[in-house]
Automatic annotation (TrEMBL):
This is Phosphoglycolate phosphatase. One of its GO terms (molecular function) is phosphatase activity. PANTHER family: 4-NITROPHENYLPHOSPHATASE-RELATED, FI11325P-RELATED. One of its GO terms (cellular component) is cytoplasm. Divalent metal ions. Mg(2+) is the most effective. Pfam families: Hydrolase_6 (PF13344), Hydrolase_like (PF13242). The active site is at D36 (nucleophile), D38 (proton donor). It comes from Ridgeia piscesae. Its cofactor is Mg(2+). Keywords: Hydrolase, Magnesium, Metal-binding. The keyword Transmembrane does not apply. The keyword Metal-binding applies.
Length: 319
């Protein structure tokens, strides 16, 4: 199952503080810890205090830790390097990124055999290359001194029957025109790595992949056929394929409501834990919690903590 809502019955979450009274049950019911990265473990290249120690403590308890990210700019190998440099040693199998999931989906689920036009980063292109899917489009593609009609005669590769859109700092009007030309053919598959609208950085809001996907979607007058990243099912289906886990024995730790927390509910995970070191605030959670909308309730975590460091402290309290 790759799109839409999970068939798992939805139970409203309570958003309780994780504390000494409930942490033992929380840990006893957990085998697999899925954790977001930026905003939970680090911010940019700065480790969030206490995160390293908590991950180590979880592993010493026998919990398997998987790093689940919507960032499509890096390959899994590059994420292994970054994790190690910041004190979070990991193997490639423990990295679940939207770029890898996209390549995995096209190769093994769709069994796509043509070329891909990629509006996205090198990391995405390299993951596609790794599974043998030819692709092009990464990097700058701009036009200078073009007339309007020049955009209507852009050459198109007849072997392309799929457009993949990820984060692209080189996004341009030329790329938008190429993607639109391919996608106006309704038989052309439209895949998005993720649809995060953006994130706050140094007091400013930086547009994310979702803004680029929205531009292509509006121009092509169609929505993506599949969205691979959180909170959509393909990313957890990839976890299931790689690790054969029981969803009810998994928890998701994250800092965003509409990606991390919603993923936990969509996929029927055992619990969702929000940490307040990234995007979401407790005030936002309480607003969602007071809503009668099921869509809003899917954004409410089961538990919250000020930061991941407090989970490490709670683990120590059990000794």
């Amino acid at each position: 199952m790759w799109m839409g809502q999970s068939s798992v019955d939805f139970i409203m979450a309570g958003c309780k503080l994780l504390d000494e009274g409930n942490v033992q049950s929380f840990l006893d019911n957990t085998d697999i810890v899925l954790t977001d990265c930026d905003g939970v473990l680090w911010r940019g290249n700065q480790v969030i205090p206490g995160a390293q120690e908590t991950i180590e403590k979880l592993r010493k308890l026998g919990k398997k830790v998987l790093f689940v990210t919507n960032n499509s700019t890096k390959t899994r190998a590059e994420y292994v390097t970054k994790c190690a440099s910041l004190g979070f040693p990991a193997s490639e199998d423990e990295i679940i990124s939207s770029s890898y999931v996209t390549a995995h989906y096209l190769k093994y689920i769709v069994k796509y055999t043509g070329k891909v036009y990629t509006v996205g980063p090198q990391g995405l292109a390299q993951e596609l290359n790794a599974v043998g899917i030819p692709n092009f489009g990464t990097g700058p593609d701009v036009a200078e001194n073009w007339k309007f009609e020049d955009y209507t005669t852009l050459p198109l590769d007849p072997e392309v029957n799929c457009v993949v859109v990820g984060f692209d700092k080189d996004f341009s009007y030329v790329k938008l025109c190429r993607a639109t030309a391919y996608l106006r053919d309704k038989g052309c598959l439209f895949v998005a790595t993720n649809t995060d609208t953006g994130l706050p950085v140094n007091g400013r809001f930086i547009p994310g992949t979702g803004t680029i996907v929205a531009a292509v979607s509006e121009a092509a007058e169609r929505r993506p056929d599949i969205i691979c990243g959180k909170p959509h099912l393909p990313i957890f289906d990839t976890v299931l394929k790689l690790h054969n886990v029981d969803p009810k024995r998994c928890i998701m730790i994250g800092d965003r409501l509409n990606t991390d927390i919603e993923l936990a509910h969509n996929c029927g995970l055992g619990a969702a834990l929000l940490v307040l070191t990234g995007c979401a605030t407790l005030e936002e959670v309480r607003q969602k919690q007071s809503s009668n909308s099921i869509a809003d309730q899917r954004l409410v975590p089961n538990f919250y903590l000020p930061s991941l460091a407090q989970l490490g402290t709670l683990i120590d309290s059990l000794k």
